[in-house]
Protein 1
Amino acid sequence: MTNRRDFLKVCTVPPLLTAIPRLATAKAEEALRLTATKTTKRLVPGAEYLESPVWAFNRTVPGPELRLKKGDTLSIDFINELDEGSSIHWHGIRNINAMDGVAGLTQPEVAPNGQFRYQFSLNDAGTYWYHSHAKTWSQVARGLYGPLIVEDESDPAVDHDIVLMIDDWLLANDATIDEASFGSLHDWTHGGRLGNWLTVNGKSRPTFEVSKNSRVRLRLINAANARIFGLNIPASAFLVTQDGYPVPVQETQDVILGPAQRADFIIDLADNDVSINETYNGDQPYPAAILKVVDTPSKLVAKRPLSQPALEAPPKSIDVAIPLHMQGGAMGNLREANYRGELRPIRELAQDHKKAWAFNGRIAEHHDHLAAVSLGQSVSIEVWNDSRWPHAMHLHGHHFWIQKEDGSFVDGKRDTYLFQRGEKANLVFIADNPGFWLFHCHMLEHHAAGMGAVIRVS
Ligand SMILES: [Cu+2]
């Protein structure tokens, strides 16, 4: 059987025109370097537009692709050349707590000109990403994110493995990042910072050259602050993982990704180009990226039928239930909430403290505990989204099953779940990772405005 590595030795794969540059891995024990710095980037083509100031890892947006193998140790020296504190979170990785990168919770923020070594082993294969976890609503929006791909020996052989990091930018008329709207109370109380310019791997409508009749793995990552994307792939496409985790293989051309969510497809191409369309926003499908089919003399992998993964069953009983009544935001029913030990009306919370969302009538801070559970317990976060907005709820350090209101479970596990307005669902997990784990909305303005709390596992 030809695996991907052998395949690369025997034939020439056409260059990917817009692939994310890979951070070269040297010896496993040797630390790589990610430097957060200010730079500029052309977001909109055309001489009439300016390059925009951005904040970037290693001067590229997205940051360099980190591609390792399951079982490898990731060793990264993070260097902060910004003029404010920062950190790196490894989204979806069931990390050791001290490496989780949440500034103010699992580590102090890395000060300007400071550095921090992240070192941990990669026990989960799949599509993950890294991003700043300090003032995320500003730092992620300015470009501080990149892909983290963990390969597994059992991954199906493909001819091309392509990461698509999808983001929306809120730009001013000259195509630079709209500065004036950062921290807008409107965004924080409504749907978050929503952009007006869509990029894939930092480019508008990029083209990827792929071989005719080839098999492609497409790794989709929603890196937007708050935008939900719908992606449509008009081809023979099979959904194989979500949030890095295997799901029952099914032929489908569509997926919806809330902020921070990922989905991997295996696509068997024919001889026609494929436009990957964004379908959730706007009246018409928007061609977000193109797979351009080219003739290549290369030998292609055998298109073996994709095998169904063995899925881990959810626990039969729950040791700890954590009721979580989520309220707030515009048009919501939250009249007052407890904040810093005092019950305060929502108007005061919004205007004086920029807080607008509450869990169980309380607006938490990073260090406030939603719950404390014992190592090994099965836990169910019983979420009721009693607001008029969708929320992409993310749990750090664990993957969870999703139990719908009728009691049934969604197949597979996730690290982020998109709650529709009014939805009730339980996020069920085994608390097998000790530490202080953030549970928060990945609509980053919502998190900043109160949608986050800590679950302690000890
Ligand atoms: Cu939210």
Protein 2
Amino acid sequence: MNKPTSILFIITGLLALLLGIFFGAISALQFILPGFFEVLPFFKSRPLHVSLVVAWIFSAAVGGIYYYLPNHCNLPLYSKQLPRIHFALFILTGLLIIISYMLGKFGGREYWEFPPVLAIPIIMGWVLFGFNYFKTVMKKKEPWPVYLWMWATGVFFFLFTFSESYLWLLPYFRNNVIRELTVQWKSYGALVGSWNMLVYGTAIFVMEKLSNDKTVALSRLSFLMYFLGLTNLMFGWAHHIYIVPSAPWIRHFAYFISMTELLILGKLIWNFSHTIKQAKDTYGNIASRFMAAADVWIFINLILALLISIPAINIYTHGTHITVAHAMGSTIGINTMILLSSCFYIIEQTNKATGSGPNNKLIGWGFWIVNSCLLVFFISLVAAGIIKGYYTVENELSFQEIMQKTAPALTVFVATGLGIFAGMLLIVLSALRKLFR
Ligand code: HEM
């Protein structure tokens, strides 16, 4: 296939998204139908789901950056060969991770449950990406727009926190539970911050292009958002070490920072949607629609995040489906919506040349199905979490009885999860058709 590497990353990301949701649907069905699809039990389907959707986030963000630098930022890549090697490493490692999960070969931790040796090609790929990125952007003489700073920070901190998340391999960390837990969870918190930098940078980039307003990415508000994001990345992990004895102020400080970051991002997109509304001709386009959806999801997630950060509520919600609602609400509602907006922006740009736009009607259907199902999916997870949290803390019922009480909410979760899968099929297959042409 003779496609630019940037587009190959995006195609791979979209395929990983579909496959990831497929495994998510299997894990969800296993919640309500014990013994369902026994060839792939929950302990295999869950990491397959999580790793593939995380791969979607990275692949779409990285593909976008490789595409935007030479095509829109007037910054030809320092090397055209390195992205190809990066892509080959990405595909090879991805396949090895899928095979090792299928064979039940684990050995890693949390998001990286695969055998730790596979971290080596991942690090190599990111070093190539980082080297090429910095060599390319250093050529820019004028002040950097905020998204170039955000992408640079995301690349650097990904490498830093990813390496940190493997410190448990050293006996100095492994032999001390507190030390190991602190470093482990701290690194995962900061890791999410590093991919948010890549995704939020992409959001600001796409908004700048859609609104044709260059001041957005050079504005004080954008840089405030960047510094808040950076502070969040460096300190906002504290709530991840909740059960490790630590001073309460660290936790409160961390929550405060993560909330302010979301508020500022919401404000930026809000400003953007006003600009877009004024320019009615561009408002109908798909990229703007996904960006507007991300805006709504920022506020919904912000409300949940604020609520679960209240200590009296947190005792009930900790470790329940509410944490999963928080994780999926933000990775689907915010990250995926922004990245789909970026994918469709690229598709619309490449199709301008051929004069054919994507099939807007099908995507429009997919858009509404995904967003309405996601809302009910999110609410049902929160409801299951409240039921489980309440009865666990009150200690009145057995585990079995609690599971029975959560069953109706989980059934709704599964049904709407299948709806998200169907909606995403419409969106992603339309995008792939255009990208393959
Ligand atoms: C873009 C789409 C999606 C993304 C980005 C996504 C992301 C995630 C993430 C990050 C987690 C880990 C949560 C945690 O560790 O707390 C997770 C777990 C999970 N997801 Fe998804 N998800 C997506 C779609 C779906 C769909 C459509 C379904 C159901 C049909 C689903 C079912 C599940 C299940 C069952 C779990 C495990 C929950 C648990 O362990 O209690 N996901 N997902």
